Amino acid sequence: MVSRDQKRWKVIAHIVMIIMSALALLPFILLIIASFTDEAVALKDGYSYFPAKFSLTAYQYLLQNASVFVRGYGMTIFITVVGTLVSVVLTALTAYVLSKRNLPGVKIMNFIVLFTMLFNGGLVATYITYVGTFHVKNTVFGLLLPSLLMNAFTVMLTRNYFEHSIPEEIYESARIDGASELRIFIKLVLPLSGPILATVGLMSGIAYWNDWQNAMYYISDQKLKTIQAILNDINNGIAALTKIAGTSGATAADLPTQTMRMAVAVIGILPILILYPFFQKYFAKGLMAGSVKG
């Protein structure tokens, strides 16, 4: 039987979660409404959940200059898919090695990975390394490699999952049957690691999709700009908007500057909002399982 106190706390917990969910959703709702608000109304009254006048002008400008945004979308999708796949593979391989506590030198490798969680060389040193040594300037590798390809947090998360969520007896029985480590990893570990791999994939995918800093540091070629980089350029000034809308003969005074920024933000974040609910259950399960202290 559920006691009265338990029922009361359950009701309170539901109310708190509803409030928190609403607080998380309200900014997205305001963003969408603002993108459909008339430019004059937005400039006069600011953004509101109940604007005095709606308008499709911002989206009309986007459609008139669709080639810019379609190219940005295509680059973003390519970078996100490739980067996420490579990130999951490298993270899983590294984590599997680090999970073998009896492996010679594994303590040093674990220390090196943990060290990168606390310290880094800074932006200047990172930029010089990637541009001067790896020559990623104005290449797709400038969007793939720096910072996002693999990080220590997801490696440690995956390592803990391999150690504590997969029974050691499975490893031992496979070795007795003569399976190599690579075969164990591919045939046993990966099929049993769906939640953590989905978690790493979701985190990497969101990071790649939302990334604009790498494009700002390493990309000046407009053909390589992602949708987030285009949005960042637009937010940085009216000059980018004028350049994008130049093909339609629009002047700076004609452009719906405020609402167009909101519209670009909407089309930039929409795919993540659509896909996240399908991966959320794996994300929560993998995060909890991988957070077991090693």
Question: What does this protein look like?
Answer:
With 294 residues, the chain is mainly alpha-helical. It is 73% helix and 0% strand. It has helices spanning 4-35, 39-45, 57-64, 66-98, 106-118, 122-133, 141-144, 152-164, 168-176, 181-189, 194-210, 213-218, 227-236, 238-244, 257-290. Helix 4 crosses helix 8 (152-164). The longest helix is centred in the last third of the chain and has 34 residues, at 257-290. The protein is globular.
**Mean pLDDT figure:** 83
Q: Which of globular, elongated, flat, extended, rod-shaped describes the shape?
A: globular
Low-pLDDT residue intervals, each spanning 5 or more residues: 290-294
Largest sheet: none
Tell how many strands the DSSP assignment holds: 0
Ends distance = 37 Å
What is the succession of H and E elements?
HHHHHHHHHHHHHHH
**Helix run count:** 15
What percentage of residues falls in helices of 4 or more residues? over 70%
* Whole-angstrom Rg: 24 Å
Percentage beta strand: under 5%
Structural class: mainly alpha
Can you lay out the helices and strands and say which pair or pack?
Elements: H1 4-35, H2 39-45, H3 57-64, H4 66-98, H5 106-118, H6 122-133, H7 141-144, H8 152-164, H9 168-176, H10 181-189, H11 194-210, H12 213-218, H13 227-236, H14 238-244, H15 257-290
Helix pairs in contact: 1-15, 3-15, 4-8, 4-11, 4-13, 5-8, 8-15, 11-15, 13-14, 13-15
Summarize the structure in short.
The chain has 15 helices and no strands.
Which characteristics define this entry?
mainly alpha, globular, 15 helices, 294 residues
